[in-house]
Amino acid sequence: MKNNDVARFADLFAALGSESRLEVMRLLLAAYPRGLTVGEIQSQLNIPSSTLSHHLEKLRHEELVTARRDKQWLWYSANAQTLEDLLAFLYNGCSTHERVKESVPVTATREGFVFENFFRSIFEGLFGSGSTFEQILERIPLQRFTQPAVRAMELAQNEARQSGHDFVGTEHMLLGLISEGSGVAAQVLRSLGVTLEQARTTVEGCIGRGRGSVLRDIPFTPRAKHVLDLSLEQVRQVGQNQIDTEHLLLSILQEGGGVAVRVLANLGVDLPHLEQQLRGATG
Fold first, then answer.
1. Which residues contact 268 (CB under 8 A, 6 or more apart)?
2. Relative to the CA of 136, which of 83, 151, 243, 252 has its CA 20 to 30 Å away?
3. Kind plus residue range of the DSSP H or E element containing 282
């Protein structure tokens, strides 16, 4: 991971280094994605308005929260993308949640709130819980996937394992699609100059490496699972029977918020052009 990335996360931790700001983040996570007005936050925390404004501005400056005005009300919401990046930074250094508990010292605040529970609440509040591919197949039968698509998802798990990650994100799905090689997704990406080695290097630059996953069945993140659901919806809309690699890659683009999209952009891929090519391939 680059030094400027580490510095960025250090700034995020500094912004969270206040009990009141942690309390604000807890409230905004509980209210995600709707958010809360300044008045609603103040009524629950019972702190002076000037102090609350200072905390909210600090969190907004570090992009931990977003603000929007709706008529006369100013609303604040947790910034999912920043928090997802922060989680990736924290969890990529550990192979299991048990190792996180062992390696991070826990210090309770006056009200019993701890960082460990805060970061668990981020994951559960924003992203829910993950599912292994076998669990996903309980909802989407195996016969709904082409052989190249199944192979790509198996390779995605291998990519996560080789990188020491204990989750399969959209970035690993992208690597799996490229590594599979024979599907439409791999062919289109290859025609745009995307190589597996370049993509691996870019993924590592975005999320770093873990310390080695010990999980046999690595769970897909809720975002990656949503990509699979979008793929199923795509084939239904066009009257097709099976999810193929082009549907998976198109759904990654459609979902839009995963690391895979950032990786493609960093590799110089024209995303609208890629989407156009994929839609042409899906008929």
1. 193
2. 83
3. helix 271-282
Farthest CA pair distance, the chain: 61
DSSP assignment of 176-201:
HHHHH-SSHHHHHHHHTT--HHHHHH
Q: Where are the domains of the chain?
A: 3-127, 133-282
Q: What is the pLDDT of residues 185-222, one digit of tens each?
A: 999 999 999 999 999 999 888 877 776 555 567 778 87
Helix (H, G, I), strand (E, B) or coil at 131: strand
Which CATH number is 3-127 given? 1.10.10.10
Instruction: Write down the pTM of the prediction.
Output: 0.58
The CATH homologous superfamily for domain 133-282 is Clp, N-terminal domain (1.10.1780.10)
Strand, helix or coil for residue 164: coil
